[in-house]
Amino acid sequence: xxxxxxxxxxxxxxxxxxxxxxxxxxxxxxxxxxxxxxxxxxxxxxxxxxxxxxxxxxxxxxxxxxxxxxxxxxxxxxxxxxxxxxxxxxxxxxxxxxxxxxxxxxxxxxxxxxxxxxxxxxxxxxxxxxxxxxxxxxxxxxxxxxxxxxxxxxxxxxxxxxxxxxxxxxxxxxxxxxxxxxxxxxxxxxxxxxxxxxxxxxxxxxxxxxxxxxxxxxxxxxxxxxxxxxxxxxxxxxxxxxxxxxxxxxxxxxxxxxxxxxxxxxxxxxxxxxxxxxxxxxxxxxxxxxxx
Length: 292
Ligand SMILES: [Zn+2]
Known about the structure:
The two termini are 31 Å apart. 32% of the residues are buried. With 292 residues, the chain is of the alpha+beta class. The chain has helices at 3-23, 27-36, 44-53, 63-68, 145-156, 187-203, 212-229, 237-244, 249-254, 256-271, and strands spanning 60-62, 71-73, 80-89, 100-101, 113-124, 128-130, 160-164, 172-174, 178-182. The strands form three sheets. Strands 1, 3, 4 and 5 form a four-stranded antiparallel β-sheet that branches. A hairpin with a 3-residue loop joins strand 8 (172-174) and strand 9 (178-182). It is elongated and about 75 Å long. It binds zinc ion (ZN). Residues 196, 200, 216, 219 line the site of zinc ion. Zinc ion binds next to helix 6 and helix 7.
């Protein structure tokens, strides 16, 4: 693929992504968000407790929380211990030995109600079975040897690649000179996540301040363009991801040059002279994106 063809493929992919962003969130994303919104956001302290007891945990909920989501905790599973806040009324005759007072000094200002903590247990999704949770739209396809070449591109760019079982629910992390990827991603997902994290490495570790929206839009757009160029089908994955981070077609348009430059660099590094192209399901249109 010569430089002109790489650019044509990149432009066409960016055009498709921009159109998808204009169309709004997919039905899959709506369903995903609806269910994910029912998961409790744990405090930092509890996140640390969960990570220390079960580092590979991705989605956690209490026993009844899982029941409400149509899943049951498997027999014999040991819960992850967290601290749940409870409101207790001050007892005047005997102190509450089960609860640790968080605010022992304000007896005069608020004598009746106190916040205390009790031990509670939550379970990771892997400890449950039942109705599958709606998944975030998947990347599909078979990157084949190109995944290996992407790993080689990382190492040629002095970026270390390591795999970890639990990344606090994330699939990958860019640490500046090092990328962590979650183990057991399928090849298409790994290709998408690795390209996304490589984009962060190449674009966002220069010390300049950028919003999360901008960084995530840029990284995911690069992943989308590279993925399309090697024939993977991202479906609504990237447009939904960008929208999830409050990005839109305008955010994309503002960064077009940087995105294209990074994507083309990766495509050229991994495809050499191989014949690649967009999946046939995507439109073949003029490679021009106009957004003001
Ligand atoms: Zn990211």
